[in-house]
């Protein structure tokens, strides 16, 4: 089976719509969402409604917890905190009820999905270095754990001698003798200096993983952000992928 794995939509309806269209074009029937459906972007309710329709499984991210009072916002930067407050004021009742019940981590068909880290997923730590990965491989039993949170695509492998390596192959052939932590990047706010929306495709029969990038109407999203009185920086960063 092929799985489309998406994360960090962040209220960016244009990016989400383009990614879902690409998923449909590739005839992928199962979509998994790793969280942060809202936050930063101007269409939180619309993104929630659409992802509920299209995704088989949806996890909670820190930006999903923050606007509904399940997470202290003091550690967020000023732009994120301002967006969280805006999101809190603009979420409808249906969206709030949906966000309250989202799980943090799941095991699906022999692999693990989580927004941030398999170790203490509700602490919202990051896996951005090999050292981070080494601490987290023992925290899941499956061969592969898919994550988001950092908005930066990355693949880190672990061999039988506890050697970790960054893997740059795309597409990636999944080796039986390796375990993997795979970051699928961000749909709605990429931060790897590539403004194209990012998501992953995992094929458990062909044993492959592919990172996909999709164009979307950035200008429309930027205009909505400005019109909503969200921080202008959140609009500007989209066109540079940072």
Strand content: 15-25%
Please tally the helical runs, counting DSSP H or I stretches of 4 or more residues: 8
Biggest sheet layout: 6 strands, mixed
Tell me the strand order in the biggest sheet.
3-2-1-11-12-9
Distance between the termini: 33 Å
Overall, the morphology is globular
Helix content bin: 25-40%
Q: In the CATH hierarchy, what is the architecture at level 2? A: 4-Layer Sandwich
Oligomer: single chain
Q: Helix and strand succession?
A: EHEHEHHHEEHEEEEEEEHH
Low-confidence stretches: none
CATH topology: Purple Acid Phosphatase, chain A, domain 2
Taken together, the total number of domains comes to 1
**CATH hierarchy class name:** Alpha Beta
**How does the helix and strand content classify structurally?**
alpha/beta
Q: Could you give me the name of the CATH homologous superfamily?
A: Metallo-dependent phosphatases
Mean model confidence by pLDDT: 97
What Rg do the Cα atoms give? 17 Å
Q: How are the elements arranged and paired?
A:
Layout (H helix, E strand, L loop, with lengths): L1 E5 L6 H13 L4 E4 L10 H11 L2 E2 L3 H4 L12 H13 L2 H8 L4 E4 L2 E4 L15 H7 L7 E4 L6 E5 L5 E3 L5 E2 L5 E5 L13 E7 L4 E7 L3 H10 L4 H5 L6
Parallel strand pairs: 1-2, 2-3, 5-6, 6-10
Antiparallel strand pairs: 1-11, 4-5, 7-8, 7-10, 9-12, 11-12
Helix pairs in contact: 1-2
Short description:
It contains eight helices and twelve strands. The protein is 29% helix and 21% strand.
Plain-language structure description:
The chain is α/β, with parallel strands linked by helices and 242 residues long. The chain has one domain: Purple Acid Phosphatase, chain A, domain 2 (4-Layer Sandwich), CATH 3.60.21. The protein is built from eight helices and twelve strands. It has helices at residues 13-25, 44-54, 62-65, 78-90, 93-100, 130-136, 218-227, 232-236; strands at 2-6, 30-33, 57-58, 105-108, 111-114, 144-147, 154-158, 164-166, 172-173, 179-183, 197-203, 208-214. The strands form two sheets. The chain has a six-stranded mixed sheet with strand order 3-2-1-11-12-9. Strands 4-5-6-10-7-8 form a six-stranded mixed sheet, covered by helices on one side. Helix 2 (44-54) links the parallel strand 2 (30-33) and strand 3 (57-58). The protein is globular. The model has no long low-confidence stretch (mean pLDDT 97).
